[in-house]
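Supplementary notes for students who missed Thursday's class. We covered one full example, reproduced here. Read the sequence, then the structure, then the short commentary at the end.
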Amino acid sequence: MAGSPEGQVAIVTGADGGLGTPVTKTLLAAGATVVGIARSISAGPAHDGRFYPVSANLLDREEVASLITRLAEQFGKIDILVHIMGGFAGGASVAETDDATWQKMMDMNLNAAFYMLRAVIPVMRRAEHGRIIAIGSKQALHPAPNVAAYAASKAALVSLLQTVALENKDKNIRANVILPGTMDTPANRAAMPKANFAKWVKTEHVAQFVLLLASEAGHDITGAAIPMYGPEG
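Structure (token representation):
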């Protein structure tokens, strides 16, 4: 891809997951150095000398701040942040949603992103360059019944990234959110074995779009909430 992120440093959260793995592989293939962050992660499927696995708890704001400071010193820059980490919980109406579920969704889908952004943006602003891509959900714009906590946390993530885009366009920092429909991951297949997998979004397609947004080809895209709903619509 023209203007690919060769030689750039990318952070990928949730790098060992169903989407994180193809995103990591795609960025590595494009020549980027990738720091893969997850609760527990090893060299894993990437097997590349430019892949640096880091175990961290992104729900700990102090740990996140310390980690980003260390990575910025180690690599001298952070060009790309792909924030994939998140979680899902549902099955209850708004009236029946308990505090623990609500807080869990806000922590996993919103607060962790906020901690990462708050730490990474100053590094990018000093360099006057950065590409930030977050993975949201179709539910952010089209919520379904009985998933209020999840949908609300993903909707808030969209607002957060759009605010980041407005606040940092003066420093050549672009921020966007991809909103996939149901993705074809091993976890989703196990959870919904009777579904028509052909209608699900392919993770490799999402990874390629992440690459576009991280590349020079995505220079003119910022503040966007981009639907990738797949054949299911």
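Commentary. The chain is about 40% helix and 15% strand. The first helix runs from residue 20 to 29. If anything here is unclear, bring it to office hours.
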